[in-house]
Amino acid sequence: MRAGYESWCDAWRTIRGIARSLRMYYGDSAQRAAMDRLYGEFVRSGDLVFDVGAHVGDRTACFRRLGARVVAVEPQPLLVRTLKILYGRDRAVAIEPVAVGRDAGTLAFRLNPDNPTVSTASEAFRAAAAGAPGWEGQRWTKRIEVPVTTLDKLVLRHGTAAFIKIDVEGSEADALAGLTRPSPTLSFEFTTIQRDIAAACIARCVQLGYARYNAVLGENFAFVHQGWMGAEEIAAWVRALPQRANSGDIYARLPEPRA
Questions:
Q1: Which of 16, 36, 44, 131 is 20 to 30 A off residue 254, Cα-Cα?
Q2: Quick one: 2-253 is in which CATH superfamily?
Q3: For residue 152, which phi and psi values (nearest 5 degrees)?
Q4: What is the model's pLDDT at position 219?
Q5: pTM over 0.85
């Protein structure tokens, strides 16, 4: 009885957390416009985009407004259900109910019922968040097994993406390790509690041939640098950020093809 009650409570808390995310990410028209301007630099009508760590699909919504086809990748069962409600009838959206990692298989995934957006497969991420300023009160109370694919396998299944967005709570370097067929542009989330992960992601991007970088802090949807910079410069910028900066996204571009 108690196990069933606790499971029901976790499900209710997750639904409440999802509802909060839906209000936050879909309710602000100015934020939607800023998001469209930012991603409009990389995404054109008819492009294929991978939304890895789709959560409630606000980026998927943006990519669809821009006319792109979207592969929305999300391993959390209740979030997958949410994505199917929102996009299940949209033939331009393929929903992949999986995590993305170095290799295909399965892995343990830790759910945060009160804040599903920071559910994670990374034990190092949970350890880094414990007691860190800005991360107070986060609790990962449930463990599930989820299927894992790689970015390369997604490319083989759906085609080469024009843009890949990666937001997987501490597993970004693992996701990039499973990519050998780079898109022209990608983004990955970073946090100031795991700057080593950001450094590993930048190093992997260099291996993949990405040469120009920029960044966005938080949910501002505006580049913090006026011009694009090299890998060493963006890495130094991440290292110099104050802890209170918390998180953001780094954008990486392949060199422009020669005429």
A1: 36
A2: Vaccinia Virus protein VP39 (3.40.50.150)
A3: -60, -40
A4: 87
A5: yes
Measured CA angle at 151 (ends 148, 157), to 5 deg:
90
The pairing of beta strand 69-73 with beta strand 93-96: parallel
Provide the residue type at 65 as one letter: R
- How many CA atoms lie within 13 Å of 37's alpha carbon, on the beta-carbon side? 11
CA 67 vs CA 26, 40, 46, 49, 143: distances in Å = 18, 10, 6, 10, 37
What residue ranges do the domains of the chain occupy?
2-253
Question: pLDDT of 52-107, one tens digit each?
Answer: 999 999 999 999 999 999 999 999 999 999 999 999 999 999 999 999 999 999 99
The candidate with the shortest Cα–Cα distance to 15, out of 97, 66, 58, 79, is 79
Residue 120 DSSP label: B
CA angle at residue 250 from 244 to 251, to 5 degrees?
Answer: 155
Which phi-psi region, left, alpha or beta, contains residue 43 (left: φ > 0; alpha: ψ -120 to 50)?
beta
- pLDDT tops 80 at residue 24: no
